[in-house]
Design a protein that fits this description.
The chain starts with a strand and ends with a strand. Helix content is 0%, strand content 49%. The strands form two sheets. Strands 2, 4, 5, 6, 9, 10 and 11 form a seven-stranded mixed sheet that branches. A four-stranded antiparallel sheet has the order 1-3-8-7, with no helix packed on it. The model has no long low-confidence stretch (mean pLDDT 94). It has no helices and eleven strands.
C-alpha cells in the first residue's frame, strides 16, 4: 500500500527558502508516476491547495500567483517530487502536505505533513 512521507520542513527567517520533498515510504514506489499535489494549512485556517504536478512533469499552481515563489519538480533519481519555496514570509507558516492520485482531480493518498515556520 502506498504511503507518502514529506520532508524538508523547518524553521527559517523571512526571506529564506526551503525545499520540500514528497516520496513513498517504500522505495519500490515512485510518486513521479502519479499526480502529486501540495497543500498547506496555516494555524487556525482552512487547508488550501498550492499546486500539483502531473506524471509528465507539468506543474500547475493555485492561485497562479504562487508560480513566482513556488516551483514544483520531479526528482526521478530519488523517485520523489519537490516543492521549492522562495522568499518565505511569516504568512507561509503552515503544515505542508503532499497528496497523490492517478489523476489530478482526486488525491486519495496523503502524507502526515511537514511543518514550516517562518519568523520575521
Amino acid at each position: 500500500q502506498l504511503e507518502l512521507v514529506e520532508s524538508g520542513g523547518g524553521s527559517v527567517q523571512a526571506g529564506g527558502s526551503l525545499r520540500l520533498s514528497c516520496a513513498a515510504s517504500l522505495s519500490i514506489y515512485s510518486v513521479t508516476r502519479l499526480c502529486v499535489a501540495w497543500f498547506r494549512q496555516p494555524p487556525g485556517k482552512e487547508r488550501e491547495r498550492l499546486a500539483h504536478i502531473t506524471p509528465e512533469g507539468v506543474p500547475t499552481y493555485y492561485p497562479e500567483s504562487m508560480e513566482g515563489r513556488f516551483t514544483d519538480s520531479q526528482d526521478n533519481a530519488n523517485r520523489s517530487v519537490n516543492q521549492q519555496i522562495n522568499s518565505l514570509t511569516p504568512e507561509d507558516t503552515a503544515m505542508y502536505y503532499c497528496a497523490a492520485g492517478y489523476n489530478c482531480d482526486h488525491f486519495p493518498v496523503w502524507g502526515p505533513g511537514t511543518q514550516v515556520t517562518v519568523s520575521s
